[in-house]
């Protein structure tokens, strides 16, 4: 891409990148490294990649999983990568009829924790059946537990939502407009192997985001969008701030901190939204 945002072409890092790439890479705000993954319909089904701060692809390694699933996002902490191995699986019989994925009850929902330094294997934690399109953040708490916050779709809600959105070009955005997902938290304890789950809100939301400078670390504030609202969560006090967006349905979000206010609560959220005027986006 040029400075004027003209496309020059895809980048495969000198032929070293041989998989696709997630739409949701994570940059460590301290090291500058960019972490991402690629999925495949053939083994290896999941491949982890890491760019150094200079932009060179320095690591690619396969992650053992049972088969191809619809993994759309993942999470990063200071020392770990968190994988979302969930029961929405690839089905070649559905090819040509929208996205070729379906819910499979026999595929156990689980979260995988992998050390970023390449030591050890992936440790898997079973969770209650669900699907996650988007992660808000993950972190390691003072007790060594890993805390993940994301928008959760229950099996029944996902079935209804998927019937509406699987034939669209952007199912994640379409799912956001169904108001079926809810903000949720999982706490993984490596000492016991136990996962604690708790709902954080019963409002239909999507596209959770934080100040990117807190990626993989504790972030007090988290933002989501509803059908016609922006919601700010205070994870310390559990308080909510709800801002209505009249006549608009947000479809994308990002946050930005002004360079002179790092670490403070000032800053802003950028939203894009389809409008009725010639399908423009704002």
Description:
This protein has two helices and 20 strands. By secondary structure, the protein is mainly beta. It has one domain: 7 Propeller (Methylamine Dehydrogenase, Chain H), CATH 2.130.10. Strands 1-2-3-4 form a four-stranded antiparallel sheet, with no helix packed on it. The longest helix has 11 residues, at 155-165. The model has no long low-confidence stretch (mean pLDDT 88).
In short:
With 282 residues, this protein is mainly beta.
Low-confidence stretches: none
Give a count of the beta strands, DSSP E runs of length 2 or more.
20
- Would you tell me which CATH topology applies? Methylamine Dehydrogenase, Chain H
**Shape from CA axes?**
globular
How many H/I helices? Answer: 2
What is the H/E string? EEEEEEEEEEEEHHEEEEEEEE
Count of all domains:
1
Strand order of the largest sheet: 1-2-3-4
Q: Beta-sheet strand percentage? A: 35-45%
Kindly provide the name of the CATH class. Mainly Beta
Helix fraction bin: under 10%
Cofactor: Fe(2+)
Protein name: Dioxygenase
InterPro entries: Carotenoid_Oase
GO molecular function: carotenoid dioxygenase activity; metal ion binding
